[in-house]
TrEMBL record:
Protein name: Uncharacterized protein
Residues that span the membrane, as ranges: 7-26, 32-53, 88-108, 114-136
Keywords linked to the UniProt accession: Membrane, Transmembrane, Transmembrane helix
Protein species of origin: Candidatus Faecalibacterium gallistercoris
Length: 140
């Protein structure tokens, strides 16, 4: 029961959000809070069912094999390098996509605040990438 408690707490929080938003369902924010609560209840219910499924005695061997494979993948140096390379490539791709999207939106005469938000995201991504790189360089 101790392992299931976090799932139950989050399901309760989702149900409380849904209940709290019922008197305000006609408004935008009440509707948003209701669906956030609903999403929380659904997601945590699925996680709880998955937990119960894998903890059942009938699935013990499959669960251990899955856990062993996950452990091997986590400590395998080649897979760690591949994950880092994939992260680097996605970072570079998003860097150029954001810059290109800024340019296209400027050509389409989009509102300035939309272009500014994307430009700020572009700068933020660059700065965070540099900071994380220097942090990892010092740590490793």
């Amino acid at each position: 029961m101790k392992e299931k408690l976090p799932f139950i707490i989050y399901i309760g929080i989702g149900a409380a959000l849904m209940a709290a938003s019922l008197p305000h369902m006609d408004g935008y924010y009440g509707n948003m809070v209701f669906w956030v609560g609903f999403g929380t209840v659904c997601a945590e219910s699925v996680q709880l069912l998955k937990y119960c499924w894998w903890r059942a005695p009938a699935h013990k061997d499959a669960y251990e094999a899955k856990r062993q494979e996950a452990h091997i993948n986590a400590v395998d140096e080649r897979k760690q390098m591949l994950r880092m390379r994939a992260g680097y490539l996605v970072n570079q791709l998003m860097f150029w996509i954001l810059l290109g999207l800024d340019f296209v939106l400027a050509l389409l005469k989009a509102p300035a605040w939309i272009i500014l938000i994307l430009f700020v995201l572009w700068i933020f991504q660059y700065i965070v990438g540099v900071v994380i790189y220097h942090h990892l360089e010092k740590r490793l």
